[in-house]
Amino acid sequence: MAHLIYLYGLIPTTEATGKSFPSFKGFDGESELYTIQLNNITAVVCNLDSKEYSAENIKEKIDSDMEWLQDKAFHHHETLVALYKEYTIIPLKFCTIYKNEQSLQGKIEASKSKIEQTFKTLEGNEEWNLKIYCDDEKLKQDVSKNNTEIEAKRKEISFLTPGRQFFEKKKIDELIESELENEKNRVCEGLHEKLKTFAIQAEVKRNWSKDVTGLKENMTWNSVFLLPVYKVDSYLEEVKRLEEELRETGWRFEASGPWPAYHFSSFS
Predict the structure, then answer these.
(1) Each residue's pLDDT tens digit, 120-167
(2) Which DSSP letter does residue 231 get?
């Protein structure tokens, strides 16, 4: 029976041959994961039925079957997390599928130098994520009290008639909202620059909505850092210190890791 190749990730062959490969169920829940050795690079894969997992069928599942998507995405992530504990691994995106072993080999050969350089970059380093949340109402109170421009506006309208004050207060409310966003950006950009000094690479990612997080606070910042292992403790201590410093004005930090280096791998 013809089959497709589902690619989870790439590991250095020296690591793959240095220990027995653990047993994992594949993407379909039936096949077993196995490795394909391509000189210095070893691919971690499983086989999939070419008809059941055709591009058209997978697209339809992703578009219409949320339960299937969540289950398969969880499997992909958890498998990579387990492999990451054992190997230096370049994790591949969800549903990276090749028609056959030859097409996979061709892609790896074409990207060989990038892959090997990525192995060197990842060795001795860990990916950590930092999500920053903000209680807007709490921070708004702080901004409203301590912003010189807002305070000047309040004094300016205090001599106006009640009718004029009503409309001018609306403008002040708008100014507070604007200054709130400016303050959030200023604080987060400053935090990112401070924490970036611990990392060899850092990226800012898109914020998640409340629908995704299920939290009452807004996610204000979402960043990832590639940290040398020996700097991780110092980084986490600094995250804790900064959070304590800002907690009273509505800030909360969520540091997590280490994760497979999804954001710092050059092979896709």
Answers:
(1) 999 999 999 999 998 888 877 766 666 666 666 665 665 555 556 555
(2) G
Task: Report the SS3 class of residue 41.
Answer: strand
Q: Which helix (H) or strand (E) holds 146?
A: helix 136-146
Q: At what angle do helices 232-246 and 162-196 cross, to 10 degrees?
A: 170
Q: What would the two tokens of residue 182 be?
A: 């400016």
Co-location of 135 and 253 in the same domain = yes
Neighbours of 51 (CB within 10 A): 11
Q: Is 33 helix (H, G, I), strand (E, B) or coil?
A: coil
> In the chain, at which residue ranges do the beta strands (DSSP E only) sit?
3-12, 34-38, 41-49, 90-91, 97-98, 125-134, 201-204, 218-228, 251-259
Instruction: Please tell me whether residues 139 and 154 are part of one structural domain.
Output: yes
Same-domain pairing of 93 and 135: no
Would you say the pTM of this structure is higher than 0.85? no
Range of the domain at 259: 126-264
- Residues 194 and 106 occupy one common structural domain: no
Instruction: Choose among 256, 181, 190: nearest CA to 225.
Output: 256
The last residue of one of the domains, among 123, 147, 178, is 123
Residue 118 shares a structural domain with residue 130: no
